[in-house]
Amino acid sequence: MRLGLLNNCKKMVQIGVIGAGAGGLCAARHILATGNMKPIVWEQSERVGGTWVYNPDVGIDKHGLPIHSSMYKSLKTNLPKEVMAFPDFPFADSEKSFIHHKEVLRYLEDYTEYFKIAEHIKFGHHVESVSPVIQAEGESPSWKVTVTDLASKTTSTTTCEGLIVCNGFY
């Protein structure tokens, strides 16, 4: 289902977003901008930033899940920040174009705060499964997303009219 078609709906539409890295934050920001769609973002970690969060640990985390980190302590971007910026939210002024990963993370945190995205993020939630909901002919498809709250170990399922997967795989 294309988000443009959902944008024409009269009721508030819930759109699921998996991941609160750059892609997920951008998706949530634009879902909010429609005025009639509301994002629900599931993020496995405890903060925004995705790949830009440095974690020196390897192996398995405290919840028994694999640690995913492509960052290293001294990493700087290989693209200029001017190319990496979202069109409506430039990086802070700096003479440097190739910046440290901490600056990119701060940028994503600022973006989250500026567009009031954090209240729509469920931190510490691991997506267990996603499945389509079969609808009657002519009805818009929807998705069942089953997640585990890693703190409480409870599992819940949410139905969304749209789903965007922003897990950084590509």
Automatic annotation (TrEMBL):
Gene3D superfamilies linked to this entry: FAD/NAD(P)-binding domain (3.50.50.60)
Signal sequence, start to end: none
Coiled coil: none
Keywords for the protein's UniProt record, in alphabetical order: FAD, Flavoprotein, Oxidoreductase
InterPro entries: FAD/NAD-bd_sf (IPR036188), Flavin_mOase-like (IPR020946), FMO-like (IPR050346)
GO molecular function list: flavin adenine dinucleotide binding; N,N-dimethylaniline monooxygenase activity; NADP binding
Domain of life of the organism encoding this protein: Eukaryota
Family statement drawn from the similarity comment of this UniProt entry: Belongs to the FMO family.
Protein name: Flavin-containing monooxygenase
Annotated organism of origin: Meganyctiphanes norvegica
